Amino acid sequence: MLDQFSAELSREVSIFGQHELYRRLREGKGEADADSVERLTVDPARLDQLHRVRKSLRHSEVEIATLLYQDEAPPIPWWAGKTWGLALALLVSLLGVVLSPASWIAVGCVLYVLMVGQIRYHERIEKWQRKMNSLQMLLRVITLMGGDDALAASKINRGLSASLVSQLVPGARGYGDW
Hints:
- By secondary structure, the chain is mostly helical.
- Helices cover 72% and strands 0% of the residues.
- It contains 10 helices and no strands.
- Helix 6 (84-99) runs antiparallel to helix 7 and helix 7 (104-145) packs antiparallel against helix 8.
């Protein structure tokens, strides 16, 4: 009945909270858990602070446990790291239009390759971005909570943040993720 009990208790809990609740239900109640709950009931201000800080986790859209705990990394496609050539080819072909109107054929070919890639990998890129957003929410909460891991979480979160260019140009972050 663990799954039914867990589902009943975790109706308004984030994905992260559901994992923690499931873990605690499987392990059983310990004295340390009872003491921490008792301390929170005595200090309602701390409980409200924890609730506010962790509230953003409820907006997490996807499960990231597999991202964090999978045994091996997914295979990297052969073309990874070579997509910069497409941007360069587009720029060169656009500059070539100044010299010869026939360069529009090259522009069309490069745009075709870019659009095919966008269509083919759009869903995977969107899924990846939702996972990154959830991971960044988790890292932000760890940073706000303070403690031993706050500095490391803040540093990792900054490293995962989108650059200014990818924030200004729609779809640029997806191409960067390629």
